[in-house]
Design brief:
The protein is built from ten helices and no strands. Helix 4 crosses helix 9 and helix 6 packs antiparallel against helix 7. With 187 residues, the chain is an all-alpha fold. The protein has a single domain, classed as AhpD-like. It is globular, with a radius of gyration of 16 Å.
């Protein structure tokens, strides 16, 4: 049950976005640019990073929906579970490991990041744009995790696959406009 009496019992992010469309319509443009704009990171990798940050932040709603989106892009759910348990033993490429380690440190202990952390990402073959994009994804999900948890939005695992499909098929702008055209409330 959400903390806000104005939200329905099964409230989701679109309900928050719709209630404050003046803020979240423009924010949807930022989400779309970060998650689907040109990047050395694939949309699936960005969804995986978003799910990973959400898992680290204990936001089950975002972690579940975005792990499902990564799965829809071809990164199987067990990969998400494995990186959450241990990046080093997870079934991911060696190139992805330092990038995820960077994101983990940024999420958990940001003031402890050093040049060596960035250098490890670059040594793995990523460029500055890739590291920036991973940082942007982590920042966006830190915001979203707190928005969701702060409103008391509940995770419904049976809805994760559908949310993941919507993230893949609609992206971040179309979801908002299709679910709530012209800022109309959800039914």
């Amino acid at each position: 049950m959400p903390f806000f009496p104005s939200l329905p019992a099964d409230a989701s992010v679109p309900h928050i976005f719709n209630a404050h469309a003046d803020i979240y319509r423009p924010f949807s443009l930022v989400n779309e640019a970060i998650m689907r704009g040109p990047s050395p990171l694939t949309p699936g990798e960005r969804e995986l990073i978003g799910a990973y940050v959400s898992g680290l932040n204990a936001c089950a709603y975002c972690a579940g929906g975005h792990a499902a989106a990564a799965d829809a892009f071809g990164i199987a759910l067990p990969v998400y579970e494995a990186i959450l348990a241990d990046i080093e033993t997870a079934p991911i490429t060696a190139k992805l490991k330092p990038l995820l380690a960077y994101v983990k440190k940024l999420t958990e202990t940001p003031a402890r990041l050093t040049q060596a952390d960035a250098d490890a990402v670059f040594a793995a073959g990523w460029n500055e744009k890739a590291l920036h994009d991973a940082i942007a994804v982590a920042c966006m999900f830190a915001f979203m995790n707190r928005l969701v948890n702060g409103h008391g939005i509940v995770a419904y695992p049976e809805k994760f696959a559908e949310r993941g499909r919507r993230h893949k098929e609609l992206g971040y702008i179309k979801q908002f406009t299709q679910l709530f055209p012209a800022g109309k409330a959800a039914e």
